[in-house]
Amino acid sequence: MDKLIIEGGHPLNGSIRISGAKNAALPLMAATILAPGQHVLHNVPDLRDTRTMLLLLESFGITWQRRKKDNALLIDATNLDNFEASYDLVKTMRASVLVLGPLLARMGAARVSLPGGCAIGARPIDFHMQGLGRLGVELNLDQGYVEGRAEGGLQGGDVVFDIPSVTGTENILMAATLARGVTVIKNAAREPEIGNLVDMLNGMGAKIEGRGSDRLVIRGVDELHATEARVIPDRIETGTYLIAVAAVGGELTLTHCNPDHLASPLDKLRAIGLEIEKGDDQIKVARNGGLKSVDIKTMPYPGFPTDLQAQIMALMCISRGLSVITETIFENRFMHVAELKRMGADIKIDAKSAIVKGEAELSGAQVMATDLRASASLVIAGLAAAGETHISRVYHLDRGYDDLAGKLNRVGAVIRRIEE
Ligand code: EPZ
User: What's the domain range around 339?
Assistant: First the structure.
């Protein structure tokens, strides 16, 4: 396993190109299952998770290649000869559950290993299963696998989510495109990644209305065709670099991003004291003065994203004042707290909230990454800390960030990656 060695105290100056969004690329890749022919996906990031999704698609008989001239991902889903997603692949990536809906819609059958929990919580898939049940799918659990059958095909129905589940909404959305009749999804998640998926599915011949709202209406069609689609910029990667420059100082221009997807984080960062200039597809950010502590409460989109909670907590460790950070989406997303405290942070957990006392003198330490966004939080703390920070288990980072250390080093950070 590799580790990162970060020398703290180097401000970030220059420009960083934002990659395509992991959480948009994964559903778009799963959606290719729905239609034969060659799909063309642009701006797909090269990450551990997208490579895992490609292995999963290959296991169904799908073929793919990266086109040299523009690095587009060509995926041909003409010949599907298997509908089982094996445990050894699913256990490394929960988002594998996204193949469940498309396999049922295209093949009338699916056998997908239950994802199992992960560091940030139990993360069940009961909403996915309840929703598919409403579309006429017979589901049962067999030796840790979810088995679905829909011999006569899927039928449209009403699906109401207790919580606006992101991948739950995406799964039902994809399944409903080929169901007989109309499906209405209420309390649907409104993350931009879902709008990206709606655009691709409609480009494949689906009939989906309500894009961007919490009520999606899908009129089933008999078949879909392959299409060309572009993955939207990664708003979480963007937010991670914004918080990084806030923590260690300097001035960054983030290009190929979408500022409209970051309204809540940008408001918070302005209140903390960052100077922010928004362009159409870029954000200029500078830290000139001090940092002020603010309270954070994670919420479904368009609220403050849970995927930036760990990162902003690292920043609140060194800002002036007291910050109460409340995590409302996942039940165990404070794994980074113990590691930040090893670096000198002053944080107390009280149920769903972390009370962060600011102006801590962070010092480099040996720390361990526990999950994807917690590892980003430790990188940010390491950039701001005095001395060297060693972060082990950086494979977590590789799941969701395309060359994070390289991008930071090119704007002034001093980060080495070594085999542990
Ligand atoms: C997606 O996960 C993202 N992953 C997560 O990003 C993100 O943190 C999360 O949405 C919330 O925004 C992808 O898009 C691949 P949920 P997802 O279903 O869909 C509970 C990252 O770092 N729930 O919106 O799995 C669940 O436990 C990752 O990139 C059920 O109880 O999240 C959670 O408490 C981490 N039953 C809440 O709902 C279900 O069937 C929201 O989860 C489904 C979810």
Answer: 2-18+233-419
